[in-house]
Amino acid sequence: MNFSQLPALTLTAALAFGATAAQAVEVTGGSVGLSYSAFTEDTDLTRLGLEGSVEFGFTRNLGLQIDTGYSDFGVSGVNTHSLGLHGIYHLDEATSFGAFYTEEDIEGFDLDIYGLEVGHEANGWNFEGYIAQGEVMDTEGNMLGFKARHELANDMGLTGSYDRVDSSGVEVSRVAVRLDRDVAQSTNLFVEVGSAKAEGAAGNISDPFVGLGGTINFGAARGATFDVRNLSRLVPGL
To answer: For residue 205, what pLDDT is reported?
Structure first.
């Protein structure tokens, strides 16, 4: 599939879903999350993030997820806003496929991100992965990511994640390990540690970071099916 066709395909899917809305539509899940992260070697380089998602079910198999995100970076003073749309097909209770489009405003520059995603749950594991392409002005880049969460005892979970962005000869990656716990029926808190790395012609930079935050889910136990897809949430601090 040509990724350049995805915004149009996602919009077409949204219109198709809208046509069935008169028959049946319900909010099946959603979430609101707050997070904070900082580099350990320079704690002035921070990110405060707020994001939310809501998912609508039109049939047992078809859904539409809308999400939004906001990031406030420390030293740089950069603020970003994003709005995303996912067209979702639930193959069964365990596996879901999606096509998504996100428009992100980064200090007046519009970044368009479009891609494909998949999620699967089995035997206490929750897997999610995506591939995407981003465009800002005349520059294009590729994105991909994967995460796996394993349910532990005492309402706890352990997640490993990896994300990478490759654009104009510069590769930026993020790897993290997160420990979370359900502190109430719909509230989950987490702490994470990780490393962010940038590689390019000017050399390589790799710095560790720490983060913490929480999520409130509603509807389905997992909230919305997929994560918010934007660039800012992959940057621990600026």
So the answer is: 86
Residue 194 lies in a domain: yes
Q: Which long-range contacts (CB under 8 A, 24 or more apart) does 52-55 make?
A: 53/223, 53/224, 53/226, 53/228, 54/27, 54/29, 54/30, 54/224, 55/27, 55/28, 55/29, 55/30, 55/88, 55/219, 55/220, 55/224, 55/225
Find the CATH number of the domain harbouring 138. 2.40.160.40
Which residues span the domain enclosing 106?
A: 26-35+46-234
Q: How far apart are CA 52 and CA 157, in angstroms?
A: 21
Considering the domain boundaries, does residue 112 fall inside one? yes
Enumerate residue ranges in the chain where pLDDT < 50: 1, 20-22
pLDDT digits over 106-159, tens only? 999 999 999 999 999 999 999 999 999 999 988 899 999 999 999 999 999 999
Contact status, residue 209 vs residue 197, Cβ threshold 8 Å: no
- Angle made by CA atoms 9, 11, 17, in degrees to the nearest 5: 105
pLDDT of residue 236: 96
Angle in degrees, CA 106, 236, 64, rounded to 5: 60
State pTM to two decimals: 0.88
70 token code pair: 């906001």
Domain tally for the chain? Answer: 1
In a domain, 12, yes or no: no
Please state whether beta strands 125-136 and 139-151 pair in parallel, antiparallel, or not at all (unpaired).
antiparallel
Residue 16: inside a domain: no
Q: Token pair for residue 189?
A: 């808190």
